[in-house]
């Protein structure tokens, strides 16, 4: 019987609406990471953090340094994640300002080597490069380890049932497989 703690998978969603497509996407990716870890015999817990729930506290922390317990706990969960799944809506060709403000509060040293799945949602496929031109450089600054496959979704990528279409499902699965594989190799001795 293993006493290894479960892998911590954190889905950080920066959508502003409830429900948001960014939250839906990050939840699906996080669930797929948990599934891939389970297939390899590893326990994992997933937790979702909605950046919008901390918007006022993020501003106060940036301006005055105040960090209420709920914001501090959210930041700590991100900093301690074995796998971090980030999802942001695209605004004006880039990630959301609120997402960037939240990320600005992270301890850069805690992100070194962190396995990250980069994802974004937008109104059209024209903004799909936000993953490689916006998110990837941001997490490179932190010396994190984003997986090779980014996941970008538009409204057209969802079937009428609300589930991802085949192409989006395949991207989610590929990114989750990469994240689970890397986390098992780099995070701890997983047997």
Describe this structure in words.
This protein has helices at 21-39, 55-64, 69-79, 97-104, 108-111, 130-141, 166-186; strands spanning 7-13, 44-50, 83-91, 94-95, 115-121, 145-146, 151-153. The chain is of the alpha/beta class and 191 residues long. The protein has a single domain (7-186), classed as 3-Layer(aba) Sandwich (Rossmann fold). Strands 1, 2, 3, 4, 5, 6 and 7 form a 7-stranded mixed beta sheet that branches. The radius of gyration is 16 Å and the shape is globular.
Spell out the blueprint of helices and strands.
Blueprint: E1 7-13, H1 21-39, E2 44-50, H2 55-64, H3 69-79, E3 83-91, E4 94-95, H4 97-104, H5 108-111, E5 115-121, H6 130-141, E6 145-146, E7 151-153, H7 166-186
Give the gist of this structure.
The chain has 191 residues and is α/β, with parallel strands linked by helices. 45% of the residues lie in helices and 19% in strands. Helix 2 (55-64) crosses helix 4 (97-104).
Keywords:
Rossmann fold, alpha/beta, seven-stranded mixed beta sheet, 45% helix, 191 residues
**What series of H and E elements makes up the topology?**
EHEHHEEHHEHEEH
Radius of gyration equals 16 Å
Task: Tell me, briefly, the overall form.
Answer: globular
CATH class: Alpha Beta
């Amino acid at each position: 019987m293993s006493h290894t703690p479960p892998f911590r998978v954190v889905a950080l969603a920066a959508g502003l609406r409830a429900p948001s497509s960014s939250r839906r996407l990050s939840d699906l990716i996080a669930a797929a990471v948990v599934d891939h870890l389970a297939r390899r015999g590893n326990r994992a817990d997933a937790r979702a953090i909605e950046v919008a729930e901390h918007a006022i506290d993020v501003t106060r922390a940036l301006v005055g340094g105040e960090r209420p317990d709920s914001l501090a706990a959210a930041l700590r969960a991100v900093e301690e994640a074995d796998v971090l799944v980030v999802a942001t809506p695209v605004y004006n060709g880039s990630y959301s300002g609120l997402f960037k403000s939240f990320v600005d509060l992270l301890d850069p040293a805690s992100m070194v080597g962190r396995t990250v799945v980069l994802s974004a949602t937008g109104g059209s496929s024209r903004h799909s490069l936000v993953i490689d031109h916006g998110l990837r450089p941001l997490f490179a600054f932190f010396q994190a380890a984003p997986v090779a496959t980014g996941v970008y979704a538009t409204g057209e990528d969802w079937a009428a049932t609300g589930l991802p279409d085949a192409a989006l499902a395949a991207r989610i699965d590929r990114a989750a497989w990469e994240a689970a594989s890397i986390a098992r190799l780099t995070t701890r001795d997983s047997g």
